[in-house]
Amino acid sequence: MVKVSSGFGRHPFRMLLPAVPENVERAAGILRAGGVVAFPTETVYGLGALAFDPAAVARIFEIKRRPSFDPLIVHVLDGAMLAKVVAEVPPIAARLMNAFWPGALTLVLRKASLLPELVTSGLDTVAVRMPSHAVARALLERVNAPLAAPSANPFGSLSPTRAEHVAAMLGDRAGVVLDAGRSEYGIESTVLALEPHPALLRPGAIAVEAIESVVGPIERGASRGPVRAPGQLPVHYAPRTPLRVIEPASVPLAERSNSGVLGMRDAFEGYAAQRSLSRRGDLREAAACFFEALHELDALGLERIDAQPLPEEGLGLAMMDRLRRAVS
Fold it and tell me: Using CA atoms, how far apart are residues 316 and 325, in angstroms rounded to an integer?
C-alpha cells in the first residue's frame, strides 16, 4: 500500500502511479478485468470503467455514491469507437466534431442499442466525447474500448483537477490513480444536445461563443430542464464549506474574519483567506485554477466562502454555473 502526502493530508492508496506508459498499460489491464481507474483528462480527473461492462459501471456509481438517474459521459478514442456507442452521427454533430474533437465538447446523441442502460440512466441518448489529453487517449488505445467516466469525486462535490484531489475525496476507493499533474482546463466539458435543435445542457471548457461560430445560435437555458446529461442537477460541484455568491466589497468587515473569498483579481481586506483566479482578469487562466482554489479554501476550516460574481461570457459562464450550483 502506497501512502501519499499532500496539502490535504495523508491518504492510503492501493496504487498512486505517475502516468508513464508502463503504468497506463497496468491501468488498462485493470479496466479489461472489470475494474475502475482514475485518470487525467484535459478537463478534470475521471473515474473510468468499460462502458459495455454493466458491473464495472455499477462500481462507478457505488464509489461516487451517484444516483442512478444521473447519466455518465462515455469517452471514445476515434470514429470506430464512436460507432460502437451511438446509433448515428447527424451532419450537425459531424461539423462540431470536426471543429472541437478531440477536445472538451460532449455531444448528446442517439445511443447504440447494446450500450447498457445504466450508463445512460435509461435514456435513449448518450453523452459522448473524444478527449484530447495524451494519457486519456493512451488509456483508450490500450483498452480498445469506450470508457464511461464521470469526474473522480463523490457525487455533488468539487471536481478534481489533481490526483491529490482524488486522494482527498475518494481515498483507496479510487483504486489505481494515474497522476499527470493539474488538468489543463480545470473545468468540465461543455455538454450540448442536438435534438430537436442545438441546446446548451452544461456550460464548460468550450465557450458557447466558439460553438455558435460553427453552428449558429444555440438555446442557452436548457440546463434548467429535465436531466439529459451530467451536470444538470440544481445542487452540484459543492465544497463542504457553505458558499455564497456575493460581491465581497459589499460584505461588512465584521463578517469577513472567519471567511474566505474567491475573486478574479481584486484583494479584499479582512478575509481570513483569499484566492485570486487571475490577476490579469484572463478567464482561461481563471478556469484552470477555479476548482483548485475552491479545494484549497475548503480545506481551511472556514465558516463560509464568499465567491465574487464573474463575467458571464466565455469560460466565465461555466464558472458561474458551477458557483450557482454550489451555493448552500
Answer: 14
Residue 68 pLDDT level (bands cut at 50, 70, 90): confident
- The CATH class of the 243-326 domain is alpha beta
Predicted pLDDT at 174: 84
The DSSP string of 208-219 is: HHHHHHHH---B
Topology classification of domain 2-88+108-186: DHBP synthase (3.90.870)
For 205, other C-beta atoms within 10 Å of its C-beta total 25
Give the residue range(s) of CATH 3.90.870.10 domains in the chain.
2-88+108-186
Indicate the Cα dihedral angle 265, 266, 270, 273, nearest 10°: 0
- Sequence-ordered list of residues with C-beta below 8 angstroms from that of 210, at least 6 positions apart, any chain: 100
List the grid coordinates of 223: 440546463
Backbone φ and ψ of 58, nearest 5°: -60, -35
Segment 228-284, tens digit of pLDDT:
777 777 678 889 999 999 999 999 999 999 999 999 998 999 999 999 999 999 999
Examine the pLDDT at 6 and tell me if it is beyond 60.
Answer: no
Long-range contacts (CB closer than 8 Å, 24 or more residues apart) made by 212-217: 214/95, 214/96, 214/99, 214/100, 215/92, 215/95, 215/96
Q: Could you tell me the pLDDT band of residue 224, with boundaries at 50, 70 and 90?
A: low
What is this structure's pTM? 0.92
Which residue intervals of the chain are DSSP H helices? 21-32, 54-64, 79-85, 91-100, 117-120, 134-143, 163-170, 208-215, 283-288, 290-298, 315-326
Q: How confident is the model at residue 225 (pLDDT cuts 50, 70, 90)?
A: low
Lateral strand order in the sheet of 15-18: 15-18, 176-179, 37-39, 46-50, 147-148, 73-75, 125-129, 105-110, 190-193, 199-202
Name the residue with cell 462540431: 96
Residues of the chain with CATH 3.40.50.11030: 243-326
